[in-house]
Amino acid sequence: MVGAGTAARHPPRCVPPGRGAAAVRDDRPRSAALRAVSDLHVRFADNRRIVEDLRPEHPDDWLIVAGDVGEFVEDITWALGLLRERFAQVVWAPGNHELWTPPDDPVRLRGAHRYDHLVRLCRELGVHTPEDPYPVWRGAGGPVAVAPLFVLYDYTFRVPAAHTKEQSLAYAEEAGVVCSDEFLLHPDPYPSREAWCAARVAATEARLAALPDDLDTVLVNHFPLIREPTQVLRFPEFAQWCGTSATDRWPVRYRAAEVVYGHLHIPRLLHKDGVPHREVSLGYPREWRQRPGTPGRPVRILTERTAPPRDGAAAAGSGPDDAQGRRGLR
């Protein structure tokens, strides 16, 4: 696909009588940008209002939405449809919350069937999904293939003292950390979430390997592709629900100019093997209210294509409410 083209020209501003042209300041961006956000969780009224106010800074901006728009199909469709009306392109990768089957959602589909249903809805909206050809961004920092991924987790980010999934889950249960996925994210028709993850890893590797060798990528996955981002979790036992060791070399192997992820609700930037990994979540109101800046403002991606890399300090955070210090659903 063809990405953003030449920036649209803006009509000149009118200068009020009696004022010189120097008095007029135009703060609009001069070029389009690739931007990203995740974990919008629009079931929260305050988050929904943020999405209602979310607009591009340039008419040719693209928006990456790296999962956890919401849990209810109606909410997901509303949010992605609204954003697609405003941004030149929208690229979506599913989070675990989209794959839940909440007991009060009228859409009762589970597992892969629910995912397939969301893909169909996104296509109707004109939103790119992991099942579509990867669009090529040709604006600032490009060209890059923007690759939305759907790779789950397989419990390999387990508690260090554990040698098996069962041991790691037992440690988590003793610590009072149980992810809501265990009750709401069904792997149908696969026998387990890790089996579904293995199938997704194999399918995704084949697609990434088929990309031209001279085309860099932006890899977009709800879960981090490497384990390092989980090292700042307040509840380290939650890491086993945060990714798979099978993707650790993907950023280098598939020429990632940047990796975009969410899930942890800890916005930060870190580097591994020279590749920037950027967490872009909004999170829950109790989390974003404690942070400086405008909540929900999409992060500009590919800034390091023209600037030297600089490690950012990790922001304090506890991780998403999926990992509470008790059993139960949030």
SSE topology sketch:
Elements: E1 34-37, H1 45-52, E2 62-65, H2 73-86, E3 89-92, H3 111-125, E4 136-137, E5 144-148, H4 165-174, H5 181-184, H6 193-209, E6 216-220, H7 250-253, E7 256-261, E8 268-272, E9 275-279, H8 285-288, E10 299-300
Helix pairs in contact: 2-3
Biased composition (Low complexity): 309-322
GO molecular function, one term: hydrolase activity
InterPro entries: Calcineurin-like_PHP (IPR004843), Metallo-depent_PP-like (IPR029052), Pantetheine_PDE (IPR052963)
How would you explain this protein's 3D organization?
The protein is an alpha/beta fold and 330 residues long. The protein has a single domain (31-305), classed as Purple Acid Phosphatase, chain A, domain 2 (4-Layer Sandwich). Helix content is 23%, strand content 13%. It has eight helices and ten strands. The protein has helices spanning 45-52, 73-86, 111-125, 165-174, 181-184, 193-209, 250-253, 285-288; strands at residues 34-37, 62-65, 89-92, 136-137, 144-148, 216-220, 256-261, 268-272, 275-279, 299-300. The strands form two sheets. A six-stranded mixed β-sheet has the order 4-5-6-7-9-8. It has a four-stranded mixed β-sheet with strand order 3-2-1-10, covered by helices on one side. A hairpin with a 6-residue loop joins β4 and β5 (144-148). α2 (73-86) runs parallel beside α3. The radius of gyration is 20 Å and the shape is globular. The two termini are 39 Å apart. The model is unreliable at 1-26 and 307-330 (pLDDT under 50).
